[in-house]
């Protein structure tokens, strides 16, 4: 099974209209392999999504950085999956560690949310926030970049794989069809720190995660699901990482705002 290389650019909470236009200009002018070789998806903040979509070359796609867990309604400040579909935004990033940790999105029962949402959705007795978002967004026709990854503390205590497996399990419990999911392994300690996982460290988790998918979801899903790496990827370290057999691409933060993002796209051909 050939897994098409996937490079995502997560712009996070950055940019002005002028800066966004500059980024789109260098993306549009770049020489990169064709769409059948590498899938490129950039994820600007919500407010710039339509601008970027309207200016961006047609072989690159756009992703939102989040969406609401169910149908929209009285949820001030949220953006629904329906809105993204309406705007023809094909992808959404879900479960990013910055949302899990800073905004308390988790796999676990969120009691306060549960109490509130139970009034609205009495059939949901357990609220698995990230997994529910993945399942709902998929059901609306969106494609998902689902993020998993351990903190430094968890890595140092030897629980990396247990954490990543639990995060993936919660998604597997709610999803039958994995065709529209890309899994992003993003160790929290490597995000925005300049401390990239070594190719061997990343490969080890990717290969374990693929094994986990094979044993717990299915052989076909394990061989076809792209597992991409995120955390301090740049134009220099991407090539060694891209050579690893179970690294199927990247989710890039800081470097996706700069022209070196093009080098990362081109690391599909590492030699
Ligand atoms: O969080 C990330 C991508 O989603 C990675 O961020 P950095 O590449 O800035 O470390």
From TrEMBL:
Transmembrane segments: none annotated. Pfam families: TIM. Its EC number is 5.3.1.1. Gene3D superfamilies: Aldolase class I (3.20.20.70). InterPro entries: Aldolase_TIM, TIM_sf, TrioseP_Isoase_bac/euk, Triosephosphate_isomerase, Triosephosphate_isomerase_AS. Belongs to the triosephosphate isomerase family. This is triose-phosphate isomerase. The lineage of its organism: Eukaryota, Viridiplantae, Streptophyta, Embryophyta, Tracheophyta.
């Amino acid at each position: 099974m050939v897994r098409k290389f996937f490079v995502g650019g997560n712009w996070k909470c950055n940019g002005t209209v002028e800066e966004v236009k500059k980024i789109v200009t260098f993306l549009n002018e770049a020489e990169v392999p064709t769409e059948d070789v590498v899938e490129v998806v950039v994820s600007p903040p919500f407010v710039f999504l339509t601008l970027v979509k309207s200016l961006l070359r047609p072989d690159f796609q756009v992703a939102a950085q989040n969406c609401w867990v169910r149908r929209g309604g009285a949820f001030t400040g949220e953006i629904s999956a329906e809105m993204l579909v309406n705007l023809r935004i094909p992808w959404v990033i879900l479960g990013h560690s910055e949302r899990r940790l800073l905004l308390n999105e988790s796999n676990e029962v969120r009691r306060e949310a549960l109490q509130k949402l139970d009034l609205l959705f009495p059939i949901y007795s357990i609220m698995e926030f990230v997994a529910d978002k993945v399942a709902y967004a998929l059901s609306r026709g969106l494609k998902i970049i689902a993020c998993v990854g351990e903190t430094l503390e968890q890595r140092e205590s030897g629980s990396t794989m247990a954490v990543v497996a639990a995060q993936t399990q919660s998604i597997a419990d709610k999803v039958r069809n994995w065709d529209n999911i890309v899994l992003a392994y993003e160790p929290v300690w490597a995000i925005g720190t300049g401390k990239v996982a070594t190719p061997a460290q990343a490969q080890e988790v990717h290969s374990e995660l693929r094994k986990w998918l094979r044993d717990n979801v299915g052989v076909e899903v394990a061989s076809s699901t792209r597992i991409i790496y995120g955390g301090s990827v740049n134009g220099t370290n991407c090539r060694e990482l891209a050579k690893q057999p179970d690294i199927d691409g990247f989710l890039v933060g800081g470097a996706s705002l700069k022209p070196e993002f093009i080098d990362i796209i081109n690391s599909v051909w590492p030699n």
